[in-house]
Structures are given as C-alpha cells and as structure tokens.
Design brief:
497 residues; Aldehyde Dehydrogenase, Chain A, domain 1; Aldehyde Dehydrogenase, Chain A, domain 2; 2 domains; six-stranded mixed sheet; 20 strands; 19% strand
C-alpha cells in the first residue's frame, strides 16, 4: 500500500503551509483499492478568511504587487510555475492513479498532458495580453473626443473545483486568473485535495509572490464562506447544476461575477452515411461514455443513431465494450478505473435500475465487475431502445452508462439533441461534412465535435472558448473570452488634439 507524502496535507495560505493545529482530519481513500492515500487537515471558515485576506493583500499592497507587474514579468513567473509542475510529473501520475482513480492512456492525456498544455498556454500568452485599446474618434461626430478601453484584473478570484479532473480544472482557473493579474483562493473537492496542494507547492517553489495562489481544504461551510465573501470579486465554479445554483445564489448577495461550468447530457449524432469502419468513430463513441468511468460533464453519453444503421452500430458497440479492461489505474492494462466513492457507484447503479424499470434494453454491463472484490467500480454499460423521455436519457448519470436513441432524418436528430435542459457539448458524424457542420451549428451547445474533432480526447485548449448553453453554465473558459471573465473593463474619454 502506497501513501502520499507530496505535501503536509494542510492548507497553503500566504506562501506558508498551515500547521494543522486542532483541525479535523480527513482520510483520502484510493477509489480502486479502498486503501488510504493520505490525510488532510480540513480548513475552517477562519482559514478561508485568512486566505482571502492574503490574496487581497497580494493584489492591493504597494510596489511590486502581482497586478502591477508587467505582462512579461507575470509570464516569466508563470513559466517558472509551469516548469515546477512539469518537474512533478511522476507525482501527478501517482495522484491520477491513487487519488483521482483515472486509468488508461486517455486518462494520462486528459489529466496530466492537457493540464500541462493549459498552464503552458497561459504562461506563454500572459505576455501578449492586451490591456489598453485606443478607439479612434467617432467619425462625423464633433466634440466626441477619443476613448481608451482599459482591461484591469478584477481582484481576488475564488475557485471551487470538482473531483473528476482536478489537476486540469484547477489549472483551467489558475492560468487565466493569474495571467490577467488577479490573485486566487482555490478550494478543491474534499475527495481530491492533494491535486491542488501539489500545485500550491509548485507555485511556492517557483517563487510566486506570497498570497497570489492560496489553497484551502474543507467542505460545504468553507465553500460558502468563499462564495459569500465580500472581498472576492469573481467566483469560478465547475461542478454539478445543483451546487452551481447554490454558488450563484450565494454570490448574489455581494453581486460578484460568477463563471459556472456545470453538467451536461451531450448528444452524439451518427448519420447513416457515416463510415462504420472508421476506427475513430468507434473510439469516439466508446470514450464518450467510458472515459474516466463516465465522470465527465462534456462526455457524449446520449448516442443518437439514424435508424438504418442503429442495430448494426449497437451490435458493434456491444462487442467493442467487451474488450475494455476494468481495473486498478495503477495497472497499465486497465482501460477504465473506478468511480470516486461508494455513493457515486451506488448512484450509478440506481440509474441503471431505473433504465431497466422504464423499459430500456440492457445491451452490455449493468453490474459491478465480478472480478474486482474491492473498489468503486461499475461495468461499462450500454442501453438500447431508449427514448429521450427516460431518466437515463435526461439526467446526468456521471458514470460509464451510454444510451442509444434512434432517429429518422436530420430534423428529428436536431430536435432530440436539443430536447434537454443542458447544452454543454455535442458531436456529429456524417459522410457529408456540409451536413455535419449544418447539424453541429443547429445544436444548442457550447462545444461541438464534427466527425471526431479532437481525437486526442484532450478537449478544448488554447484560444478556443469552452462553456455551455442553458443550464450547462454561465461564461466561458480559455482564450480571450476566458481571460475577459477575470477582468473589469474601464472606458476613459479624452479630448482629441
């Protein structure tokens, strides 16, 4: 049994590790083995207030404060931070296997490689961010003068992240917030705190000024203290719709800006003119509901298949699922690991039972793997003969459960795809690329794959904005749109000549 020794397991505030004191201790459990990974001291509301005070001081205090550095200086600091993260790659691999429970090459790409690409992007582009833009005099309007549009960092950013992709999603928020000159208080999921604490250690080792990046632990009370704190200017949250509504409500008291990336029930549309022998198709469909045991908000768990190929594709998918190896992520042969905890496993099994109760056909899986005595595993599960009114088609399961819904023609595909309260992602496959783009454009979703899109399974990176329509979120992450979420815009008028 391996236990973690990557950090003291305490909050990191104002450049220092807390001493633990008389705080409660939580044991973090490996979801594959149910063995302890390490212990973490739970932060308190007082710790949250200290962290916000430290971030406020780092933002506001005198000469050399983080927001008053030049873009090139911040870029250099973030590059040192990136280098420190890269140097901890082996530790991140340990985290991925033992704390997060993610298996397979796709997991390494999405959990580690993509995370490094994200922070590398912001380290590089922090030097290129434009904060001042002079507008020309208004043509034909006398006496209107000229205007300077200035973008300024908003202040202290509060960030709350989930358990499923914690290394990646922590850096999704750290990167743009710090690149634009803000300071941050980060609260990770209580199930995966070491993923954030290792980043705090890297930031300290890279010489980021004290108070620029603070990491606290804890649960609901600490999260609420952060979302309601009057000195937090922006709240950035990734997680469930239920908690997202609470974050928005709690932030409303101080009218702070919120960035919410929430749940999804993304459609994966396959037209009859698609080449079923394309290996990228099968990989995309399977990964769309089994990657990281289905614990991904943008995964394409609703497969909408045109009726002429429905039965054949169902047979092929069922057969292909039989080749997936479910097991401990520490075993290189494992393709899919466990769910995060027993409650998540039981919730997924409950959804599987609801599918059976509502008349769907269980084509594959549906149980706990017989060969695994321990761990929070569920077999890759496929339902056919599903209608879009069933719970398994409408609610986010957050487990390795895919559903296949038949459709007739393009209009019905779009209607079914958009018949959901969510709007995070989507995918379209067709031998006619013009049709695929037309259908993709009709989807009420923020991120759409056309004929496979990003085949690395790494997801959105760089300048491409990411976010959802409808109940899948508010705001965008990545690129210029993501940077703007963390900045205030000021207009200054001045006379011409």
């Amino acid at each position: 049994m391996s236990t973690i020794s990557l950090s003291p397991g305490t909050a990191h505030v104002n450049g220092k590790w807390d001493d633990g004191g008389d705080r409660n201790v939580t044991t973090i459990i490996n979801p594959a083995t149910e063995n302890p990974v390490g212990e973490v001291y739970e932060s308190t509301v007082d710790d949250v207030n200290r962290a916000v005070a430290a971030a406020s001081a780092a933002f506001d205090d005198g000469r050399g404060a983080w927001p008053r550095m030049s873009p090139k200086e911040r870029s250099a600091a973030l590059q040192r931070f990136t280098d420190a993260i890269v140097a901890r790659r082996d530790d991140l691999q340990f985290i991925m296997e033992n704390e997060i429970g993610c298996a397979g090459m796709a997991g390494k790409i999405s959990q580690i490689d993509e995370a490094i690409r994200v922070i590398s992007y912001w380290a590089e582009h922090a030097a290129d961010l434009t904060f001042d833009e002079a507008l020309p005099p208004a043509a034909g309007l006398t006496g209107m003068g000229q205007a300077l549009i200035r973008r300024e960092p908003a202040g202290v950013v509060g960030a709350i992240t989930p358990f499923n992709y914690p290394i990646l999603l922590n850096l999704w928020k750290i990167g743009p917030a710090l690149a634009t000159g803000n300071t941050m208080v980060l609260k990770p999921s209580p199930y995966t705190p070491f993923s954030a604490l290792i980043l705090a250690d890297a930031a300290a080792g890279a010489g980021l000024p004290d108070g620029v990046l603070n990491v606290i632990t804890g649960g609901i009370d600490e999260a609420r203290a952060l979302t309601e704190h009057p000195d937090v200017a922006v709240m950035s949250f990734t997680g469930s719709n239920t908690v997202g509504r609470q974050v928005m409500s709690q932030a409303a008291g101080t009218l702070k800006r919120v960035v919410l990336e929430l749940g999804g029930k993304s459609p994966h549309i396959v037209f009859a003119d698609t080449d079923l022998d394309n290996p990228n198709l099968m990989a995309s469909l399977i990964m769309g509901f089994t990657m990281h045991a289905g614990q991904g908000c943008v995964l394409h768990t609703r497969m909408l298949v045109e009726r002429p190929i429905y039965d054949e594709l169902a047979e092929r998918l069922t057969g292909a699922l039989g080749y997936l190896t479910v097991g401990d992520p520490a075993d290189p042969s494992s393709d899919m690991g466990p769910l995060i905890n027993a409650a998540a496993r039981d919730r997924v099994l409950g959804y599987i039972q609801s599918g059976l109760d509502e008349g769907a056909t269980l084509a594959a899986g549906g149980n706990r793997p017989a060969h695994l005595e321990r761990g929070f595993f569920v077999e890759p599960t496929l339902f056919t003969n599903v209608t879009n009114q069933m719970r398994i088609a409408r609610e986010e399961i957050f487990g390795p459960v895919g559903v296949m819904i038949p459709f007739d023609g393009q209009d019905e595909a779009i209607a079914i795809a958009n018949d959901t309260p969510y709007g995070l992602g989507g995918g379209v496959w067709s031998g006619d690329s013009a049709k695929a783009f037309e259908v993709g454009g009709a989807l009420r979703a923020g991120y759409v794959f056309i004929n496979g899109g990003d085949r690395t399974f790494g997801g959105p990176i760089g300048p491409a904005p990411f976010g959802g329509y409808k109940q899948s979120g508010v705001g965008r992450e990545h690129g210029a749109a993501g940077a703007d979420e963390y900045m205030e815009i000021k207009t200054m008028h001045y006379p011409v000549g």
